[in-house]
Amino acid sequence: MNTHTLDTTALDHVVAGARARAESWSATPLAERIALLERLLARIASHAPEVAAAGALAKGYGPDSPWAAEDWIGGPWALAQNASAFLHVLRRLAAGKEPVETKAVHEDAGRTWVDVFPATGWDVLLLNGYSARVRMRPGVTADQVLTRAAGEYRGRPGPPSVALVLGAGNVAAITALDILHKLYAEGQVVIAKMNPVNAYLRPPFEDVFAEFVEHGWVSFVDGGAAEGGYLAGHEGVDTIHVTGSDRTHDAIVWGTGEDAERRRRDDRPLIDKPFSSELGGVSPCVVVPGPWSDADFRFQAEHIVTSKMNNSGHNCIASQVLVLPRDWDGTDRLLDEIRRVLRVLPPRTDYYPGSAERLASVLAAHPEAETHGEGCRLLVPDLTDHAGPLITGEVFGSALGVVRLPGSTPAGFLAHAVDFANETLPGTLGATLIVHPRTEKAHAEAVRAAVSELRYGTLGVNCWSAVGFLLGFTPWGAFPGHTRQDIGSGAGFVHNAFMLEDVEKTVVRAPFTPAPRGLVTGDPSLSPRPPYFVTHRTARATVRRLTRFTAAPSLAKLPALLASALRG
Questions:
Q1: pLDDT value of position 263
Q2: What share of the chain is helix, strand, coil (3-state, %, to 5)?
Q3: Contact at 8 Å (CB) between 473 and 132?
Q4: What secondary structure, in 3-state letters, does 255-310 show?
Q5: Which of 159, 172, 372, 446 yields a CA-CA distance of 20 to 30 A from 207?
């Protein structure tokens, strides 16, 4: 029996307090906003072990487990990286510079692009060979990009407003990053409702955002759907951002019960205020056939497994469907390497509520599924039925399905793969494309067309699309076009430290192979095996050092950081 009582008086008090402080945040000068971020970074570093350890223990392993690297990456490091990205842009503005360098904005094939990463010298050194660029919506010119960027700080601030952030329960940094975006990109004070799954993060978050909390610019509340619904509909809340599922969005906007579908059909929402969202979907990982070596198969198998097994697959852009060439002699070889990696990983279980039932539905639909863990790490090596749960909806757990598509050439395969991803798989948040550099060089037009035509808010080329979530300079959100009546993967972009308007998609690139093998494959870089790989032997120590460095860069910290990364 549910005995929970909604305390509306307490919530009203929180909203009233936020409204009373909204104007003071709007009036806070740029120099003080910069100083607040600088002090925030110091607190991120000091509370990083607490945040990472809390996540590890909640998921069922110790803070010293190899799995705990993900709790540093998706927690304190992501927060430090995003805060540093905003700080970089705000310092440019304070120095009288444009937020985006003119040379970073250019035309390509009739579209305007913005080079957003690397943005600093440290980026070039620490993520050597990585790059990201943002394509703007059709018709947007380079001059418009430069003029409209960072409007909050260039004569077009929004009115003093209260934003409600409905936090995610799966990745520690998400709620904190959404708070940063609302504060710094949109100029709004924030009420952040913690997700019940990771409400244990509220105390360290209140410490990290201590100055903002003391000024009344950020408030944290606990609770479930009732509290979230009440706050979303509150007349004192001006805007909403939610990370979750389309069901969460629809329950807030259209309600539940018999009248909800009628309201949706007639476009009569219960809540009609600015509402941005990141809602996930079915993310593909497309592998283009090519001249792979033994080392390439091993490395990319680890890459693909990482994109599935990070956080036990409880990520909105976890690879759920692996799209492989039916006629490539490397397809079965790659799958064998994936099986090997799945078997040797340390044990863990899917922890997110409902994951056992979702995995059971996959097993029921695919009795041929291979199990490489204790009731988890499911692999369905040939999804011939495109009406099953792996194709039609987000499983949000450690299950990976394989779809084999025809195409006797890379160009032919890519045409089928793009059509399948765009037209069959639900969702437009993130996709990953893996292509050997020599294949891309030989089939440049086909790869260029695939990169252009895949309708995803973030496309990772030779890197998991989640890298775009982490960098801060890269806008994060679904491909534009969803409506509130058919919300799909959501609406709007967050992070976006350059505060670009009219964003359509981000393309993030990484080396196909780690150093020094890039000299052989044709994409040389200085980057070793990425520390976010689940197979990285020193990942936890490396990301711990990286977090400290990102919060306070120093040449003195580099030798130990680089040595740790190379040992992985």
A1: 94
A2: 45, 15, 35
A3: yes
A4: CCCHHHHHHHHHCCCCCCCCEEEECCCCEEEEECCCCCCHHHHHHHHHHHHHHHHH
A5: 159
**Distance in angstroms (rounded) separating the CA atoms of residues 452 and 110:** 12
Name residue 528's amino acid.
P
Residue 1 has pLDDT above 70, yes or no: no
For position 2, what pLDDT does the model report? 54
- Are the CB atoms for 480 and 424 separated by under 8 Å? no
The C-alpha atoms of residue 542 and residue 536 are separated, in whole angstroms, by 10
Residue recorded with tokens 């409506």: 483
Give pLDDT tens digits for 13-60. 999 999 999 999 999 999 999 999 999 999 999 999 999 999 999 999
Q: 423-427: which pairs have CB atoms within 8 A and are 24 or more residues apart?
A: 424/386, 424/391, 425/281, 425/282, 425/283, 425/284, 425/321, 425/391, 426/281, 426/282, 426/392, 426/393, 426/394, 426/488, 427/280, 427/281, 427/282, 427/283, 427/394, 427/478, 427/488, 427/489
Q: Distance (Å, rounded) from C-alpha 303 to C-alpha 538?
A: 16
Phi, psi of 481 (to 5 degrees): 130, -20
The pTM of the full predicted model, rounded to 2 decimals, is 0.97
Give the list of residues 6+ apart from residue 151 with CB closer than 8 angstroms, or none. Answer: 157, 499, 501
- Which helix (H) or strand (E) segment is 10 a member of? helix 8-26
* The residue to which tokens 């509520």 are assigned: 353
Nearest Cα to Cα of residue 530 among 544, 513, 545: 513
Q: What are phi and psi of 562, to 5 degrees?
A: -65, -40
Q: At 33, is the secondary structure helix, strand, or coil?
A: helix
pLDDT (tens digit, 9 = 90+) per residue, 388-415? 999 999 999 999 999 999 998 999 999 9
CA-based radius of gyration for the chain? 23
Rounded Cα–Cα distance for residues 297 and 302 (Å): 9
- For residue range 271-280, list pLDDT tens digits in order: 999 999 999 8
Quick one: 236 exposed, middle or buried, by C-beta within 10 A (0-12, 13-18, 19+)?
middle
Q: Would you say 359 and 378 are in contact if contact means Cβ atoms under 8 Å apart?
A: yes
- For residues 518 and 129, give the distance between their C-alpha atoms in angstroms, rounded to a whole number: 10
User: Which two structure tokens, joined as six digits, stand for 516?
Assistant: 């020094």
pLDDT score, position 408:
85
- Taking CA 471 as the corner, what is the angle to CA 521 and CA 560, rounded to the nearest 5 degrees? 75
Quick one: tokens of 381? 């090596």
Average pLDDT over residues 418-439: 98
Q: Cis ω on the peptide bond leading into residue 160 (within 30° of 0)? A: no
| Dihedral (Cα; 329, 313, 473, 121), 10-degree rounding | -70
CA pair distance 549, 294, nearest whole angstrom: 35
Q: What is the mean pLDDT of the chain?
A: 96
DSSP 99-159: SS-GGGEEEETTEEEEEEES-SHHHHHHTTT-EEEEEEPTT--HHHHHHHTTGGGTT-PPP
